[in-house]
Amino acid sequence: MTKAFEQRSVVIIGAGPSGAIAAALLKRKGHDVLILERQRFPRFSIGESLLSHCLDFIDEAGMLDAVQAAGFQIKHGAAFACAERYTEFDFRDKFTEGFGSTYQVQRADFDKLLADQAALQGVEIRYEEEIIAADFSQESPRLQARRSDGSDYAIEADFVLDASGYGRVLPRLLDLEAPSGFPVRRAVFTHIEDRIADPDFDREKILITTHPEWRDVWYWTIPFSNGRCSLGVVASAERYQRRPDDLDACLRAFVSEAPNLRRILANAVWDTPARLIGGYSANVKALHGPGFALLGNAAEFLDPVFSSGVTIAMRSSSMAAAVLHRQLSGETVDWETEFAIPLKRGVDTFRTYVEGWYDGSFQDVIYYPHAQPEIRRMISSILAGYAWDAKNPYVAEPKRRLRVLAELCANGAPA
Fold first, then answer.
1. What is the DSSP string of 356-399?
2. CA-to-CA distance for 176 and 340, rounded, in angstroms?
3. d(C-alpha 263, C-alpha 259), whole Å
4. I need a surface site. Which of 4, 216, 217, 255 has the fewest CB within 10 A?
5. For residue 75, which of 53, 100, 54 has the smallest C-alpha distance?
6. pLDDT tens, position by position, 336-372
7. Residue 59, C-beta contacts closer than 8 angstroms, at least 6 positions apart
8. Which 8-state DSSP code applies to residue 7?
9. What percent of the chain lies above the pLDDT cut of 90?
10. pLDDT for position 4
11. pTM of the entire structure?
């Protein structure tokens, strides 16, 4: 009897960075890979500032030459400003070996480039197809997909990787969603023609600005190579209560309260309507189960402050692809000890510094004027994305080290 469903080895939900990287890695190992993507690329996505560690995975997937040739804005580090205070970290001067420079990208172009590179390596990508049901109760997972014309079909796979990002397809369908430990925050953002003429502004760094009055409110300024930049503000819900409902007016009002942004963006052309995203922090009950694993934002998203989202997504893709290759090759694998636990170590490192940013302790460290160079290099490694390097004391013991360092800074001691 002919089965009424398609059979594939690996199905990946989502063609964003984590899906494209995982697909290319598996295809390079000789596996049959199908990506199903709900949207048509290129499409807008937020999260434009890549960390250096991302290039390790782009290189592993055979896409580095294409990314380097694409003309994206080169990025060497991160700058931080609050009122008249200013400091910067150069990712080329860091504790951990690996890439120093990286890129700031308009995600519509970047994501399409990675997906196209995966396709060039033989990965099949079907755009405008959505997963509407999933059954993992049988020996082989089955997915119900819906095409753009409204017709449905079924796919049976050996394994499914969910790289659906904020869509969180399997967490929704399999009741895996769990509350995040972070307070609900909102981001209002836009792209502008920045016309920045300030000679002290460094286009080769992301600029993170702290609100001069509220330490839990911060801004990102991410320059692109075409004279535009991504601009946004992140704040808790109550901080928006005195703001107008108009998102453009809201963002402009926040920017006017930051002296450095008011100065460097004085000539900017605000030509794109602002957008709002809220309640973006997310978690899940499990990162894997029989026949599936969750990648990147489909599993957990912390906070945008250190641009860790794409790095975690790509790291999870590389780790999952390695474990899945061994499984498909007939080896016995343990997804918990070989994927979930080691992935969480780096995520938890980022979490410590995100929490420290919002409670002020990490801001005290960032802005401290008497920091020791070697400690700055260790912090620079984490800001560059190398949050899994256990040789770095601030990765191996993030909570204790940050607490001690913040106390030294508070007391004015060398730190």
1. HHHHSHHHHHHT-TT--HHHHHHHHHHHTT-TT-TTSHHHHSHH
2. 15
3. 6
4. 4
5. 100
6. 999 999 999 999 999 999 999 999 999 999 999 998 9
7. none
8. E
9. 87
10. 62
11. 0.95
Contacts of 175 (CB under 8 A, 6+ apart): none
- What whole-number distance in Å separates Cα of residue 363 and Cα of residue 335? 36
How many C-beta atoms surround the C-beta of residue 172 within 10 A? 15
Q: What are the tens digits of pLDDT across the range 2-56?
A: 356 899 999 999 999 999 999 999 999 999 999 999 999 999 999 999 999 999 9
Q: What whole-number distance in Å separates Cα of residue 1 and Cα of residue 4?
A: 9
CA atoms within 13 A on the CB side of 63: 29
Angle 78-79-82 from CA coordinates, rounded to 5° = 145
Task: Kindly give the pairing relationship between strand 102-104 and strand 124-127.
Answer: unpaired
The Cβ-side half-sphere exposure at 348, using a 13 Å CA radius, reads 12
Cα separation, 50 vs 237, in Å, equals 27
- Cα–Cα distance for residue pair 179/182, rounded to 1 Å: 9
Residues 216 and 71: their CA atoms lie apart, in Å, by: 34
pLDDT at 298: 78
Count of residues making up the chain:
415
Paired strand residues for 159: 10
Q: Quote the DSSP letter at residue 238.
A: G
**Rounded to whole angstroms, how far apart are CA atoms 272 and 264?**
18
Burial 56-86 (b: 16+ CB within 10 A, else e): bbbebbbbbeebeeeebbebbbbbbbbeeee
Q: Rounded to an integer, what distance in angstroms lies between the CA atom of residue 16 and that of residue 241?
A: 34
Which backbone phi and psi does 143 adopt, to 5 degrees?
-120, 145
For residue 150 the two structure tokens come to 């409204």
Answer yes or no: are the C-beta atoms of 9 and 31 closer than 8 Å: yes
Average the pLDDT over 330-339 and give the result: 98
Count of alpha carbons within 13 angstroms of residue 337, beta-carbon side: 3
Which phi and psi (to 5°) does residue 164 adopt? -85, 0
Query: Strands 77-82, 205-210: parallel, antiparallel or unpaired by DSSP?
Result: parallel
